[in-house]
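Hi team,

As requested, here is the filled-out complex form for the adenosine-5'-diphosphate run. I kept the field names the same as last time so the parser does not choke. Let me know if anything looks off before we queue the next batch.

— J.
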Amino acid sequence: MDATESAPAPDTDATTDPVVVSGIQPSGRLHLGNYFGALRQHITLHRQHDAYYFIVNYHAMTTVQDAEQLREHTFNVALDYLALGFDPDEAALFVQSDVPEVTELMWIFFNLLPTSTLEKGVSYKEKVDAGLTPNAGLFNYPVLQAADILAYGGSLVPVGADQKQNLEIARDLARRFNHRFCPDDDPLLPVPEPHILDDVAVIPGTDGRKMSKSYDNTIGIFDEGDTLEGKVMNIVTDSTPLAEPKDPESCNVFALITLFADEETQQEIADKYRAGGYGYGHAKQELHELIEDHFADARARRKDLEQRPDYVRDVLRAGADAARAQAKPILEQVRDRVGLIRTR
Ligand code: ADP
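And here is what came back:
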């Protein structure tokens, strides 16, 4: 079959005993958008299934090309996950580059995917439009992502809605591989299912656009003190005078408040907006306190973990061992099916 043909093949049954896989990019400090859009659900899900969570430092190289920064961001993501409640006894947490089977599988996949599929990549186009260099890593990003999923036989992938297209490419590659190299009754790779994360609205940044490190409008999960206060106080609002009634629904500060406050508190604050005599400065102070409270325990855990880098490295090493133990037999079979001979 030509790589440009469609590849119908029987899907494997992804409903039984799912293997959950998910990656997080260490391309900067994680922010509230990452937390509510992804991390929070990762933390909940990691206890429920056989799960592999990896810090995708190869993917981050598409934008981070400073060795010290890449090391620092990678370690910081590990600290963030552990501080936010990831239990390494429940699932594997590890660094992508510790499992070389993934990049090997990526090469095999390169040969199965038409470049036209990648040319249609929405995420690639958005990144280039946002000013990122259109290098080959950025272009091939979804193929590495597919290898990340399929090297572990991943069948369930928790992703934000913005990742659906990339997951489609991974599904396509699993089918193409099975169709090309496996008998119909013995497909090797499961066709992974997306687990679309709770339908969280796009979290606004301090300027009202989508919170994103590309826009420099983020509030970090672990920002604190003057940094946190400064960012909260800088959230853009309209210029309605303090005495006048305000509309909570159109206010960025209130949008962030709803993420942290319980229903009753949200209602109370909304009432104050509508009554007048309540300024955006007051709302910002409430938001600041809510953020401080929400992450207080995680912040304390993170400070403790910072003092124990050897422990964090041990966690990542054990996670990588578990991940390689999962990936090696799958890659053995992949090599065999595509005809890569081994002489040693
Ligand atoms: P950034 O835009 O800062 O580069 P990423 O693209 O690395 O963030 O985000 C990783 C994941 O975090 C996304 O797939 C999405 O699930 C979630 N996410 C990021 N920003 C937001 C946001 N503003 N609102 C909701 N979810 C978000």
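Two things worth flagging: The chain has a mean pLDDT of 92. The beta strands are 19-24, 50-55, 92-95, 156-159, 193-196.

Thanks,
J.
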